[in-house]
Write a structure and sequence with these properties.
This protein is mostly helical. The chain is built from 27 helices and 5 strands. This is Glycosyltransferase RgtA/B/C/D-like domain-containing protein.
Length: 651
């Protein structure tokens, strides 16, 4: 009877939470009309760049207000429904069926809204009959072999497959300068990330004399590359290791949390497909900005919290307090969310064991957290002081957050009907499930984990909330796919037939997604393997010719000026350093940075300039001014073999 009452309370809480949050969002839309901040920021940005600003203050307020209100609404509703007599099993079945129908309806409408973009390559969409038959067959096989005696065999075999898949997929991100070419992938995505890594190898220090939008990870990696040397090959190899750690963390987490190892396997393959393969088979683009820069610390959160729960050892507690402040330095956006999810994870058990010592225990966590965070930041500050002679300006960590999120650069509004509705629902259900044991003071380790991932998921969702592009969504929603197999595992062990039936439907979809992943892996390989093969074939591509050309005129360690959207690659491969204290061209937005370049050229403070033909590919009107100044004050003296790069000497 108590189980039925809890089930009813959870469902009713979910329903009414959605209603109250919807009302809150509507009233914010109705009453909140902030003044545009475009005039305020016009002094910092050129008019050509201002065109890219699309502020979303109302949507941002709706999102932040909803996050703040959610726990209070859920707790209040749980307390209300806890006192009500809602023990009828028929009521629960009716509510559950209605809930399932609504989920299906929103899934259908959301996918239709994006022209089935997210399932276009899914086997259930491309070949529904074959996909259904194969998935049903595998679900039947699972049902026949799901007893305890087969779990060890299933675990060993599926882990072996998963580890191989993880290493193979991660390794295909390794490449050399021979593969670097023109186009958005290298000139914007890769160069935006890599430029800062190349710059800090010599005279530059981030947030001392150089801005960066992806955090301080280049500084954290600097000691490693000081030992190994920096090249595209070595950098991408480090990215491969970090991506591999991300995947294996998912694997370890699911196999540790879930009792049914087959569910862990299909859950892992589903997150590999929707979380990684889907985006990375749209085009050839490793997009290291997200994998691993924004995923490595959330994945370490899974490792540390799982180990902490399994071993109840304080060593993992202190390891967490060392790792997660570093995550804030590494990349502020994902690092801060991970830090808060870790803190929420620690507080969860304290509130589940509510007694008169609660405030003391919470205070201890806060004090230890502040001490460790202050210590990590102090050590980092000392390190940068020794390297550069200056303390970093930590406000620089949020400069680009302000540009993109607060001021709305390159932002896109969220559509009303979209698959994001279901991802948010997955996180909402997680909070409803996990907050109930807190109210009842009945600690449950699985609910503990669900709570943490829901917090993490809501936090990381802000990446999509700002720039609501389908491709951004496809890399930001992966925490939801960590929760779905947990829900399936919980439902299949239920005594209610409606739960078991729902669990098998979920297993059917997860299995079909696993089949899709194995179909996509060879296609992924066919896209990325040719790039990896360049490691051995070492073709003399345009980028190689330009590196050879630069090396003819410089020596290692020289401070030079390269105007190119592959400038980070050229600085790294030649062992040179950017002469000017400005960001790379791929992440240059401030008017002052363009003026620094223009004034140095106009006043002939730069002796030589290497000018790439691709310098007009982006920010064309601003860079045309730069090229005009070069031609007025400098003379061309040589060109690379492919004529793509010209060396200019001042007159």
């Amino acid at each position: 009877m108590e189980l039925e009452k809890n089930n009813n309370a959870n469902l009713l809480t979910t329903y009414f939470t959605i209603i109250f949050i919807s009302v809150l969002i509507y009233f914010i839309h109705l009453l909140y009309h902030p003044i545009s901040n475009i005039p305020q920021i016009s002094t910092y940005f050129d008019t050509t760049i201002l065109q890219g600003f699309v502020p979303e203050p109302v949507e941002k307020m709706q999102y932040m207000a909803s996050l703040i209100a959610l726990p209070f609404i859920i707790v209040a509703l749980h307390l209300v429904f806890k006192k009500m007599s809602i023990e009828t099993n028929y009521l629960y079945i009716a509510l559950f069926v209605m809930f399932s129908v609504l989920v299906y309806l929103f899934l259908f409408l959301g996918l239709k809204q994006v022209n089935y973009y997210f399932v276009a390559k899914h086997i259930l969409y491309e070949q529904p009959l074959l996909g259904s038959l194969l998935s049903l067959l595998l679900v039947v096989v699972y049902h026949c072999f799901k007893n305890e005696s087969n779990q060890k065999l299933i675990s060993i075999s599926t882990i072996a497959i998963s580890v191989y898949v993880s290493i193979y997929i991660a390794y295909l991100n390794v490449y050399t300068v021979h593969s670097v070419g023109s186009g958005w992938l290298y000139e914007n995505h890769f160069n935006a990330l890599y430029y800062s890594v190349a710059a800090v190898m010599h005279k530059h220090s981030l947030f001392v004399n150089l801005e960066n939008q992806y955090g301080l990870f280049p500084e954290i990696l600097r000691p490693l590359f000081k030992i190994t040397g920096l090249t595209v090959h070595k950098f991408t190899f480090v990215m491969f290791i970090l991506i591999g750690i991300t995947f294996l963390s998912w694997l370890y987490f699911l196999y540790s949390i879930l009792k049914q190892k087959w569910i862990a396997f299909i859950g892992f393959m589903t997150i590999m497909y929707f979380g990684y393969l889907f985006y990375h088979t749209i085009r050839l683009d490793s997009y290291f900005q997200y994998y691993p820069v924004r995923t490595i610390f959330p994945s370490l959160l899974l490792l540390v919290t799982t180990a902490y729960l399994r071993r109840r050892n304080n060593i993992f507690y202190y390891i967490g307090w060392v790792i997660f402040p570093i995550g804030i330095l590494w990349n502020f956006e994902s690092g801060f969310v991970t830090f808060m999810a870790w803190f929420a994870f620690l507080l969860y058990k304290e509130f589940a064991e509510f007694d008169k010592t609660l405030l003391k225990r919470v205070r201890n966590h806060i004090v230890i957290g502040v001490v460790f965070t202050f210590g990590i930041f102090s050590l980092y500050s000392l390190y940068i002081l020794m390297v550069s002679g200056h303390i970093p300006n930590y406000s620089g960590m949020i400069n680009y957050v302000r540009i993109f999120y607060n001021y709305g650069f390159a932002m896109m509004p969220m559509p009303l009907l979209h698959p994001w509705n279901l991802v948010v629902l997955v996180y909402l259900v997680g909070l409803v499930i996990s907050i109930k044991p807190l109210i009842d003071r009945k600690y449950n380790s699985q609910a503990h984990v669900i709570f943490m991932i829901s917090i993490l998921g809501f936090g990381l969702f802000s990446y999509y909330q700002g720039r609501s592009h389908d491709e951004v969504f496809s890399i930001a929603y992966y925490p939801a796919f960590l929760l779905i197999p947990i829900y399936a595992d919980r439902l299949i062990r239920s005594k209610l037939k409606v739960h078991i039936a729902t669990a098998y439907i979920m297993l059917f979809v997860l299995t079909a997604s696993t089949i899709t992943a194995f179909i996509e892996i060879p296609y992924y390989g066919s896209m990325y393997e040719p790039r990896v093969k360049q490691i051995s074939t070492r073709d003399r591509t345009s980028s190689v010719m330009q590196v050879e050309f630069i090396k003819r005129y410089i020596k290692k360690g020289d401070a030079i000026t390269i105007l190119s959207f592959n400038s980070g690659v050229f600085y790294g491969e030649t062992g040179t350093v950017p002469e000017l204290n400005v960001p790379g061209p791929s992440e240059m937005f401030f008017k002052k940075d363009f003026e620094i370049i223009q004034n140095n050229i106009r006043n002939k403070k730069i002796d030589r300039i290497f000018l790439d033909a691709n310098y007009l590919n982006f920010n064309k009107s601003l860079n045309e001014i730069v090229i005009k100044l070069i031609k007025e004050n400098y003379v061309p003296i040589d060109a690379s073999e492919d004529k793509q790069m010209v060396l200019y000497q001042k007159q």
